[in-house]
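hey all, quick one before standup. I had two proteins in the batch that finished overnight and I want to keep them in one place so we stop losing track of which output belongs to which input. First protein below, input sequence then structure tokens straight from the run.
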Amino acid sequence: MTAPAAPRLEVSGISKSFGQTRVLRDADLVVQPGQLHALVGQNGSGKSTLVKILTGYHVPDPGGEIRVDGSALRLPVRWAEARTAGIAVVHQDLGLLDELTVAENIGVGGVERTRIMRRIDRGRECQAAADALAALNLRINPVVPVGALSAAQRAGVAIARAMRDLVPGSGLIILDESTRTLDRHELRDFHAMLRRIMDAGTAVLMVSHNLEEVLSVADRVSVLRDGRVVGGGLPTAQLTEKSVAKLMLGKDVDGVTSAARARRTEPAIQVTGLCGPGAARLDIGIGAGEVVGLTGLPGSGYERLPYLIAGAQPARAGRLAAGQHTVDLARGGVAACIRAGVVLVPERRDRDGLAMSLSVRDNISLPTLRTHGRRHWVGRRWQHEQTGRAIAALGIRPNAPTRLISELSGGNQQKVLLAKWMSVGPRLLILHEPTQAVDVGARADILNAVRRAADTGVAVLLVSAEAADLVAVCDRILIYHGPDRLADIRADEPEVVLDAVYGTRTAV
């Protein structure tokens, strides 16, 4: 009789402390061969800490054990040993270099070299990349720069690199929020690729905030809350989004506060004749206190509109009128738009929105320094009061104004970014994917804050691919059907929005 196979990954009693703060407590996790096991939890629950211990970035507290295929790894984990044991990781940003070719990206860390001179053997490198792509049924030219690929192709290249040194049918791939940039069709193809990999015996540990995706593709799910595993290896067939969210939060999920739909009024913000990347003489009007959504097919061009309207990307033509202010969007920039009361919460908070090496207080205070301070003197009292109000209003955790942004979870970073631009008292608040890669609790906090801002008379443009977010807070939704056409709909169900975007129902 054949003995049962050892778990692909077995984590037992792993803990991690930073000073007096214990962020991971006796965590256990078991992933079987050929299984897709999801790891979920709020931001700050310990997910990222556990992944960083598995990959050797963090040193765990004494005690505990990590086994791969029944063999113990030395602790702290040495990445070379973990890689040899069969652990591979695909990070949130995929870790790809746009200026390098597909073959060069796949070969990073293990390039093919000539035998005598030890120079990079480009022919063998391309062949190795082609073999790795073929094993995943991916038709991608190895000599094309990665920057020219679609989001789905980039994700495929990252998977091919992760599997480059794995023995077929073995190993564990860790996906750390790796699918967040894929649209629904790309996700379908990506999941099919994962299933082929798992059918051969390779296991997948998926870290994700997307509960819909988790429950549709994962075999089992483990839930972390406050550093503890509160649900280990639960069969997803027996779960719902609501039940998983309750485990994550320790209570029923607070919903987004709904409000009566704003009646259409004369626009407080009027954009006319907008031309530029993704726009060809578009007109957009938003009333005071109105929340208007904007969405479309991923990659179609609607994602560029918030940056044109906020002056972050120069337009070829177009004017923005806000109160007594008028901005020529072809000549004005971010500063002119801010003076007119137009602010943008960008999609990439780490790159475009926050100073990661500064504190919560410094980030929130930054846009209003000139209005409160004097030359050679800024003052701290007003900053402390302003930050305290923002922390209380948005539930920013920890309640520590001097904590560095880089030390916060993604959801709390997003709350700080929203507070930063709300501090200027905007006329128009533009948000691009404000709930991307945040947990269900932070999502509700952010969307409720958006609704409260609208209740004070702020006009809001919410640009998102998340139909549930749009339905939750928007008074109406603009569907992008090309650079010169926007359909205007009202929707109470996400399916109505998706139908309008993907063309299965005529928008009215």
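OK second protein, same deal, sequence then tokens:
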Amino acid sequence: MKTIWQDLRYGARMLAKKPGLTLIVVLTLGLGIGANATIFSAVNALLLRPLPVKDPHQIIALGMRDNYLEFPHGLSYEDFSDYREKNEALSDLALYWTLSAGLSHEGRAERAIVDVVSANYFSLLGVDAIHGRTFLPDEDRVEGANPSMVLGYGYWQRAFGGNPQIIGETVKLNGHPFMMVGIAPKNFKGILEMLDKAAYVPISMIGRVAPGTTLRGRANHNFQSIGRLKPGISIEQAESDLRVFDVKSLDAHLNSSVALAPIRLGAMLVGSFSLIAVLLATIGLYGVMAYVVSQRTHEIGVRLALGAQTGDVLKLIVGQGAKLVLAGMLLGAIGLLACWLPARRATRVDPMVALRYE
């Protein structure tokens, strides 16, 4: 024990002799540990941990490809309605859109994450309210009607102290009153669990959450869709079934085709580019900074020994790292554009081809 204590004291004296270099190394290690912890938490939440829903292996994400974007993306409410009514491989199909909105009650206001969902969202997932109820089947039928709200568990605890008697009272969303009809379970945070949802509202109220937005028009691809496979149906079989419907409706969908994926992977890919961008940026920035520090440790030590300020050295490292990151982003954007433009031209609809399927 005495030897260990002596080694620790010696190490501390050595570090104290070069405080600038020590600070830079500590900051780099701290950034790396924090970044890796964040990335692991994100990967665990997005891909590894099963959703706290009924039979999560049956839940899939549904996205669209078209002649403008080959990568799977969201779909319109009208496309969703068509697929929901006419497919034979899914027992149900639901819609959601994650947005930021203002919530206020009795003078307490905050900016919060809200999910706008179809009325069958909770029933498809097999999630029941712990107090009150979820949405009724007809609460999303008439646009602008039924301003009801299911509160997320965390917001319910923060804003109302976990009081179950608030069921039936109103809370304002973007200044408009909504009646609180239920409380979501503690372990349920929607499909994208990294974003703790404060509330869920029917998709019929989309105009209150996102002013100027309507459910009409196939060009509005902001919505994400989830489905439940029928027993014994695989993702491949379901995708094949839905693509037959694509061909039959080619004139309406304008060369659109469906893309299915397991819910964890699909929820991250379909309509969640910002989350992917944050994760990749975090990894990239740490990697660049770590590389700069490792390659220039001797130079950093010399600069500090000659009297350079720690802050100046840190600005030098961050500046050089930022230039490398920007150069990589520019190169990646050029590559993406070079791949996207030919793909867009190649997948444009040929009217003569469309006529063959009529």
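Flagging for whoever picks this up: The radius of gyration is 26 Å. Residues 16-47+272-346 form one domain.
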